[in-house]
Amino acid sequence: MEAMGTGPEPAGRATIEDLESLLANLEAVGDDALREEEFAETQRMLDDLKGKTIKRASVEAKRIVVETSDGNRYFFFGFMGGPSAQE
């Protein structure tokens, strides 16, 4: 078993400026682009499920979980409706 480190790796030293830059890029992403990427990711997962046997599927508060007989789990977000869906 590996020992746990006591501090950040040298390559992992991010600055506030790095974080601000990442956040600025995130803000520049439009809603349509996010929807398209979510759709593409979902399509990739569904393609990966082809030919596999679904062992179990469950609906959680904010996601759908599909487990295959080979032990892989797939998480689907964004299909659960708004906050009023459970209320």
Task: Describe it.
The chain has 87 residues and is α+β, with helices and mostly antiparallel strands. It has a domain at 32-81. Helix content is 36%, strand content 17%. The protein contains 2 helices and 3 strands. The chain has a 3-stranded antiparallel β-sheet, covered by helices on one side. Strand 2 and strand 3 (73-76) form a beta hairpin.
Give a brief rundown of this model:
With 87 residues, the chain is α+β, with helices and mostly antiparallel strands. It has helices at residues 16-27, 31-49, and strands at residues 54-59, 64-68, 73-76. The protein has a domain at 32-81.
Keyphrases for this structure?
disordered N terminus; 2 helices; 87 residues; single chain; elongated; alpha+beta; three-stranded antiparallel beta sheet
Task: Please write the string of helix (H) and strand (E) elements.
Answer: HHEEE
Largest sheet: 3 strands, antiparallel
Low-pLDDT sequence parts = 1-5
Q: Order of strands across the widest beta sheet?
A: 1-2-3
